[in-house]
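Can anyone check this?
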Amino acid sequence: MAANESKSIKSSPEAQTASELEADIRQLRDDIEKLTRQLAATGQQGYGTAKRAAAEGVEQLRVQGEAAMESLRGNAKELEEQLLATVREKPVTSLAIAAGIGYLFALLSRR
């Protein structure tokens, strides 16, 4: 009888150890699933944040580009007005300069 009790005592801790290991493994699997879901959610949030930042950056660049184009248009208009004023003030000089530039272009295009 003592032998039976010692066998049951010996098998009992082993059985508890195996069941504890199985419980630990189940718990680890549950934890891994939770972590996987959390990482997926974090990745989606990070993607959304990056997408919003990129959209804001594109919008900022578009606004800056439009401002630069407006500035260039203003400068071109001012240059055109100055050129027209100079031609009206000195038509003969302007005609001579235009003829000289045309002659230079003709010489360059022949080569």
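Reply from J.R.: I decoded it. The chain has two helices and no strands.
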